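go over my protein:
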Amino acid sequence: MGTVVRRPIAAAAAAVLFVEAVGIVFVNWILGQVVDGQSMSLAGLDPGVMATSTWIMGGLSGLYLVVCGVVLVRSALSDRPPGRVGRILLIVCAVVHVVLGALAVGLVGWPAFVLMMVEFGLIVLALIAFGPRVERDRADPVDAPKSGPENGAPAPA
């Protein structure tokens, strides 16, 4: 795929991840407020600990999505594929979206599943659009030595 297609795909995937990060943080903040406000407890756990852990989980999830979005923005701006760590981050992000999509069908419904699969598709398409990370030779092909009778190499039989 050419740069005309790769860059917008990576930018769109990054934008979706940034919006999702805000949504995840917001939902976890609301859940923490509800747990804290109603003094809910699960198996005797302290409600304050449950609320705090919900806020921390939301923050870490949002941070992870922002980091994945930054990797995609960097790829879109430089028109280069993400490095090894960036690829691993994006692959894990894609797998998490598939698992959450499968869970979303039963818990929320098919529209949530479709949304998760669109996000999954954008992440995978961004990974595929850049192709494998291959280090190309920096040497000029004109200056590269040629094999053949004129260079002292034996002629093919």
In short: The radius of gyration is 24 Å.
